[in-house]
Amino acid sequence: MASLQSSFNNSTHKIQTPGQLLSSWNSTKGTRNLFFPNKRSSIFPSRRLIAVRCSALSGLEVQETDEELSPEDSRPLREIWREIQGENDWEDLLDPMNSHLRREIVRYGEMAQACYDSFDFDPHSKYCGTCKYQGAHFFERLGMADRGYTLTRFLYATSNINLPNFFQKSKASSIWSQHANWMGYVAVATDEEEIRRLGRRDIIIAWRGTVTYLEWIHDLKDILQPAHFRDDPSIKIESGFFDLYTTKENTCKYCSFSAREQVLAELRRIIHRYRGENLSITITGHSLGAALALLSAYDIAEMKLNIIDDRQEEVITKIPISVFSFSGPRVGNLKFKERCDELGIKVLRVINVHDKVPTVPGIITNEKFQYQKYLEEVISFPWSYAHVGVELALDHTHSPFLKRNSDLRCAHNLEAHLHLVDGYHGKNKRFCLASKRDIALVNKSCDFLKSDYGVPPYWWQDEHKGMVRTADGRWTLPERPGIEAHPPDTAHHFEQVIKYARAKLEY
C-alpha cells in the first residue's frame, strides 16, 4: 500500500482502506446479465536519426559479439505462425528472443500506437475525442499503407461510466458528440502477399489507451463484479473496465451499441465473410487499452465466436485468439485468469519493470500471493486480482539511448516499450537494437531520449494544429467529413452472435 502511494506521488490518487473498499463494493449497482439479452520517416530530414547496431555506438555501450545477440530465425513466418502467436505459450521464444516474435510484437505494438497517433485530444477542437482520419484513409495517413490491412470498423464507447478521466472532452460550444469517444478499430489482412507471409488472414482489434498518464487509474476502486458473459458469477472483472466495455447510450448514434456489441458484431461479420480460410484473431492495446484487449479476448472466446462448427462436414475449427498487450493493468480475479486459460486465450504481456500501471489493481491480493485461491473461494475476498498470460519484463535502464529519469510517464510510454523490445535479446544479454527502427519515435509524446541525439521532446503533432489557410488568406479549422458511426447490419450480426452462443451452450 505504501509503495503504491509513494509511486503515485504528486497525484491525487487516494488509497482506500479495505473497509472503505468493501463499503464501496457493497453499494455498487446491480450488474446485468450480458450473456443473454511503413515505417515513418523522421521529422528531421537533414539529420535522420536511425537506430543502428551496437558496434557503431562504441561511445555509448560495450561492443557486443555476434554470440551475444539472439540469432535470426531462418524459418518463414508462415510455417511457424502458430508458435509466434503463442500456441505453446511462447516457450523457448523469449530467451533468447526469437527474431520473428520480436518483429511481430513491434508490428502489433505499432498498430496500437496508431490509436494514439490518430486520436484528436485537443480540447479546443470540436472534434476532440474522435479519430482524425477517415477509416478508408486511416493507414495511409499514418504512413502504414504498406501493412497489408484494411480497416473495417471504428470502435466507440460512452463516457457515461465511472472512469471519467479516461475520456477527452471538447470545450467548444458545438461538438460532434456529448457522450462518445473513439476507442480503436478493427482491421483485417487483405493484401495477398501479406497473407502469404503471415500464413493466414489475420483479424486485428486495436484498443486506444490513455492520452494522459495515470489520470484514469485514480478512478479504479478495486471493485470486482461478475462478468456475466457466461453463467458463472465467480468470474469477476474490475467494474470500470466492465462498464467501459459494456455500457451504451441510446441517445447517441455512436454509442447506441456498446463497445462489446460493436466488436462481436464486426468480428462475426468478418469471420462469416472469410469462412473456410485460415484465420487468426489478434488483439492489442496499451495501458487501459491493454485491459480492453484482454477483456474482449475473453468475451470472444466465452461467446464461442472463434469456434466454427460445420455440422454438415462434421468439422470443428478453432480460430486462435492472441493478445499482445503493453503496460496493462490487472483486469479480473483469479477465476477470470483460470477461465481465460481454459478457453485457450494466449496473452503476451509486455511491461517495463519501472512502470507502476501493471502493478494495479490488486495491491492487497494478486497472483503472487500464496493463498489467493483460498481467499477467493473460501472467504470471497473482493479485492483479489490476477494477471493473465506470459510476461515479457523489460528494463529501460538497459537502453543506452534513454535517460535515467524517474518520470513515470516515460516508463509507461508505448513507443519506449517498442524501443525496448527492439533491443531485447534475452535475459542477461546486452541491449542491442535489432532493426533500423528510428529512435526518434521514442520522443513522440515524452522526453526520454538522451539529449545527445538532438531530438526534441513531444514532437508528434499536427502541422498548425490542423488549421489551414483559405483562398482569401484566412486561417480556419476545416470541417471534417461525416464521422463514421455503425454499419446498418450491426444489430443483425450481434443477434447472430448471441444466438450462436446460446446454441453452443445448449448443444
From TrEMBL:
<dbReference type="InterPro" id="IPR029058">
    <property type="entry name" value="AB_hydrolase_fold"/>
</dbReference>
<dbReference type="InterPro" id="IPR002921">
    <property type="entry name" value="Fungal_lipase-type"/>
</dbReference>
<dbReference type="GO" id="GO:0047714">
    <property type="term" value="F:galactolipase activity"/>
</dbReference>
<protein>
    <submittedName>
        <fullName>Phospholipase A1-Igamma3, chloroplastic</fullName>
    </submittedName>
</protein>
<keyword id="KW-0378">Hydrolase</keyword>
<keyword id="KW-0150">Chloroplast</keyword>
<feature type="region of interest" description="Disordered">
    <location>
        <begin position="1"/>
        <end position="24"/>
    </location>
</feature>
<keyword id="KW-0934">Plastid</keyword>
<dbReference type="GO" id="GO:0008970">
    <property type="term" value="F:phospholipase A1 activity"/>
</dbReference>
<keyword id="KW-0442">Lipid degradation</keyword>
<feature type="domain" description="Fungal lipase-type">
    <location>
        <begin position="204"/>
        <end position="363"/>
    </location>
</feature>
<comment type="similarity">
    <text>Belongs to the AB hydrolase superfamily. Lipase family.</text>
</comment>
<dbReference type="GO" id="GO:0016042">
    <property type="term" value="P:lipid catabolic process"/>
</dbReference>
<dbReference type="GO" id="GO:0009507">
    <property type="term" value="C:chloroplast"/>
</dbReference>
<keyword id="KW-0443">Lipid metabolism</keyword>
<dbReference type="Pfam" id="PF01764">
    <property type="entry name" value="Lipase_3"/>
</dbReference>
<keyword id="KW-0809">Transit peptide</keyword>
